[in-house]
TrEMBL record:
Residues 132-392 form the F-BAR domain. Residues 1-20, 34-107 are annotated as: Disordered. This is Growth arrest-specific protein 7 isoform X5. Residues 34-43, 61-73, 86-107 have a biased composition (Polar residues). It comes from Vicugna pacos. It holds the Pfam family FCH. Keywords: Coiled coil. Residues 44-56 have a biased composition (Low complexity). It comes from the Eukaryota. CDD domains: F-BAR_GAS7 (cd07649), WW (cd00201).
């Protein structure tokens, strides 16, 4: 319920003294007598007792006491006393406001962790902030039952758990790459050691040259694997570790910020409920004293009624102030929730993309390593194709022959 735009009343008619004009959330105009707290749908006439326009009797509005309906909500709250948890296709559900002809009911709203939401059965489906995407900012406003117990988990807490799980997965990937590096280093060490082995070192000829090249290829391959392990460390493992540390800091910042806002929101909600109860007690006291006045007139009772009215008005003002502070806190929480969930979404996309790029770098290094390994055995293949047993025999015979005179038969 908001006041009409400035100047609108004066362009059509002038209200009698003490009357104010307001608009309900549905856009219908109604009138409040600030002196008697009388409310009516019909425009009051400047002449007492004569309505300005024909129509049904005044009014189906809930009774008011000092500007407050008996339900404990302001009859004509200021425009600032509003609350909108999320943009909705319907009217926003206001904590601490009501409309003529229909009292605000707690059944129309649900409260989760001190946050008021429109009830799904009474409100149209809310518009999504990013309807074309399955975005974090649209689907984590309510709580979810904890599968591990009987409690519930807040939607934002689920998002944090996913981020922490992502951080753990990244840590495990980094540890996996570290183990891969250790295997490569150990493999290179063993290859280098094997290349120095003296077994079959006395093989001769073209086959001996090929065998020597086989042993040399092991040393070359060991160097290739050492370079592979060094690149894995600098281009895959270290970036994963560094990014994980930054990611952890971002998560802590988001967690602390939202937690502080939720604490403030909880405190504001408690203040509203306390002020609402105080207003109800003051109104009940005022009603009781009014009934006493009707039974027996006395100056003392009238004075008590004035005091009770002042206290009731003060309690109503306190409630409106608490509602306004709550709405400000909830509005801030809503804005920060949207901003933070979108930031968590960005961080998750960034994390996945970073890991994907470094795994691509891993496969690229593997391909390069395989290519270099292949190049170490190519000289071996060339020498193996040149192995010639006949040529080797010739060279060996030339070097080791003992004589070319064949034995002859003995004569008698």
């Amino acid at each position: 319920m908001v006041p009409p735009p400035p100047g609108e009343e004066s362009q059509t008619f002038v209200l009698p003294p003490g009357w104010q004009s307001y608009l309900s959330p549905q856009g219908r105009r109604y009138y409040v007598n600030t002196a008697t707290n009388e409310t009516t749908w019909e425009r009051p006439s400047s002449s007492p007792g004569i309505p300005a326009s024909p129509g049904p009797h005044r009014s189906s509005l809930p009774p008011t006491v000092n500007g407050y309906h008996t339900s404990g909500t302001p009859a004509h709250p200021p425009e600032t006393a509003h609350m909108s948890v999320r943009k909705s296709t319907g009217d926003s559900q206001n904590l601490g406001s009501s409309s003529p002809g229909k009292k605000q009911s707690k059944e129309n709203t649900i409260t989760i962790n001190c946050v008021t939401f429109p009830h799904p059965d009474t409100m149209p489906e809310q518009q999504l902030l990013k309807p074309t995407e399955w975005s974090y900012c649209d689907y984590f406003w309510a709580d979810k039952k904890d599968p591990q117990g009987n409690g519930t988990v807040a939607g934002f807490e689920l998002l944090l758990q996913k981020q922490l799980k992502g951080k753990q997965m990244q840590k495990e990937m980094s540890e996996f790459i570290r183990e891969r590096i250790k295997i490569e280093e150990e493999y290179a060490k063993n290859l280098a050691k094997l290349s120095q082995n003296s077994l079959a070192a006395q093989e001769e000829g073209s086959l001996g040259e090929a065998w020597a090249q086989v042993k040399k290829s092991l040393a070359d391959e060991a160097e290739v694997h050492l370079k592979f392990s060094a690149k894995l460390h600098s281009e895959v493992e270290r970036p994963l570790m560094n990014f994980r540390e930054n990611f952890k800091k971002d998560m802590k910042k988001c967690d602390h910020h939202i937690a502080d806002l939720r604490k403030q929101l909880s405190s504001r909600y408690a203040a509203v409920e306390k002020a609402r109860k105080a207003l109800t007690e003051r109104q009940r006291d005022l009603e009781m004293k009014t009934q006493q006045l009707e039974i027996k007139l006395s100056n003392k009772t009238e004075e008590d009624i004035k005091k009770a009215r002042r206290k009731s008005t003060q309690a109503g003002d306190d409630l409106m102030r608490c509602v306004d502070l709550y709405n400000q806190a909830q509005s801030k929480w809503f804005e920060e929730m949207v901003t933070t969930t979108l930031e968590l979404e960005r961080l998750e996309v960034e994390r996945v993309e970073m890991i994907r790029q470094h795994l691509c770098q891993y496969t690229q290094l593997r391909h390069e390593t395989d290519m270099f390994n292949q190049s170490t055995v190519e000289p071996v293949d060339q020498l193996l194709r040149k192995v010639d047993p006949a040529k080797d025999r010739e060279l060996w015979v030339r070097e080791h022959k003992t004589g070319n005179i064949r034995p002859v038969d003995m004569e008698i």
